[in-house]
Specification:
Distance between the termini: 36 Å
Helix content: 25-40%
Strand order of the largest sheet: 6-7-8-3-9-10
Bound molecules: adenosine-5'-triphosphate, magnesium ion
Strand content: 25-35%
Number of strands: 10
Structural class: alpha/beta
């Protein structure tokens, strides 16, 4: 399988704070990667570098053979990647349908009819077709996050990045969002998912990486992490989240 995402010698500083320390990581086309690690370890910063929401201080992020630069990153993100955030980030002044058709119409130059059809299909897949005309504030957290995932599905980019998509949800809504992500994972889409939902990781991840203090300290299959993690900090972290 071809490499979809290649991260080479990536460093990121915020002022004097060295947040990503010489990260190398390759994700194959269609691969599902889960990133775990303690708060502040650099997980969000790393995936934000993949669509250039953060600019690397040094090193390279290569998407499908093209290095991201100041010049090409908007076009590359439009073509390749969409992000689902912890806090949903839906536009509050637009309906669900408006949220889903905005980027396809404005950025991808789809016709309104085509964008609407794709949006309705995506909403059906996440079980929310009946909410198309609703405003986000009238939806539950779980529903809002499913809308955010449907929005990412509509643009049909080959990469989807999830940053703790279930951590802001009430516990009873976590599974409905995970179910949508599990379904999405059946497709040939490349997924990087920051999450501590290890059941999800076990079900969909091809590979898990553990980050601490800006570095990848361990990587392996989900089973490896359940059965035989080596790094002491990784073991300690897993003991906390798996309790
Ligand atoms: N825009 C920023 N300016 C300054 N420091 C930042 C910025 N964004 C992140 N940081 C710092 O970089 C470090 C890594 O942050 P990051 O958000 O990547 O961690 P994380 O692993 O995603 O943590 P969490 O699990 O809490 O989401 C933290 O020390 C954080 O305070
Ligand atoms: Mg984070």
């Amino acid at each position: 399988m071809a490499d979809m995402i290649e991260i080479r010698g990536l460093n990121k500083y915020f002022g004097d704070l060295h947040v990503l320390k010489d990260i190398d990581l390759t994700v194959k086309a269609g691969e599902k990667l889960v990133i775990i690690g303690p708060s502040g370890s650099g997980k969000s910063t790393l995936i934000r570098c993949v669509d250039y929401l953060e600019e690397p201080t040094s090193g390279e992020v290569i998407i499908d053979g093209t290095t991201l630069t100041k010049k090409n990153h908007l076009e590359m993100a439009r073509k390749y990647s969409s992000m689902v955030f912890q806090q949903f980030n839906l536009y509050p002044n637009m309906t669900v349908l408006g949220n889903l058709t905005l980027a396809p119409i404005k950025l991808q130059k789809k016709s309104k009819e085509e964008a609407t059809e794709a949006a309705m299909n995506a909403l059906k897949r996440v079980g929310l077709a009946q909410k198309a005309g609703e405003y986000p504030q009238n939806l539950s957290g779980g529903q809002q996050q499913r809308v955010a995932i449907a929005r990412a599905m509509c643009t049909k980019q080959p990469i989807i990045l999830f940053d703790e998509p279930t951590s802001a949800l009430d516990p009873e809504m976590v599974q409905e969002v995970l179910d949508v992500m599990i379904e999405l994972a059946q497709e040939n889409i490349t997924m990087i998912c920051v999450t501590h939902e290890m059941g999800f990781a076990r079900q969909v991840a091809d590979r898990v990486v553990f980050m601490d203090d800006g570095q990848i300290l361990e990587e392996g299959t989900p089973d490896h992490f359940f059965e035989n993690p080596q790094n002491p900090r990784c073991r300690e972290f897993l003991a906390k989240i798996l309790h």
